[in-house]
Amino acid sequence: MPALLTVRLMRPEDLQAIAEIQAQCYPPEMNEPPGLLAARLAACPDTAWVAVDATDRPGAYLVAYRTLLGKVSSLGAAFEHHAQPDGLYLHDLAIGRALRGQGVAQTLVSHAREQASRWALAGLALVSVNDTVAFWRGQGFEVAHVSPEGQAALGTYWGTAVYMRA
Predict the structure, then answer these.
(1) How many beta carbons lie within 10 A of that of residue 148, not counting itself?
(2) Domain segments of the chain: what residues?
(3) What is the mean pLDDT of residues 100-129?
(4) Which of 49, 52, 45 is nearest to 112 (CA)?
(5) Which CATH code for domain 6-165?
(6) What is the rounded CA–CA span in Å between residue 136 and residue 139?
(7) Contact indicator for 128, 60 with CB cutoff of 8 Å
(8) Using one digit for the tens of pLDDT, what is the confidence trace for 81-110?
(9) Contact 162, 128 (CB under 8 A)
(10) Dihedral, CA of residue 71, residue 75, residue 81 and residue 84, to nearest 10
(11) Which of 125, 115, 104 is nearest to 45 (CA)?
């Protein structure tokens, strides 16, 4: 990660920058509306992080929540930390144009991995979209088997969606 960037918890005042980063990374139909972004942050404020520059402006983010490994969330489902979690679900990792190719994604994933370890969680999970399986494999994730309910949840995503664990 560039020397002038740090990772910190996301704050409500970051949501406009998060929406801008999201718009740089996804087609319009995959952008989450501001109200949903705010609700996700309110539900899980301790598992949403941003990479910020010297002016404290976010240039990338990672939003996650504590869950059960093997449980696949449908696209647009509400966030809520599971009462007895064994995993950290990485919902959305997005890197703004200005920071791409600088190792910021790896830094944010490493930060999430450290937090999961601190919370004694067994691992990380996510749904890979936009042909990112190879990227996630490079981060130590592998494609994982899911239940029929999980397959139905994967069907709510745009394009090909793959459940992965690390």
Answers:
(1) 7
(2) 6-165
(3) 96
(4) 49
(5) 3.40.630.30
(6) 5
(7) no
(8) 888 999 999 999 999 999 999 999 999 999
(9) yes
(10) -10
(11) 115
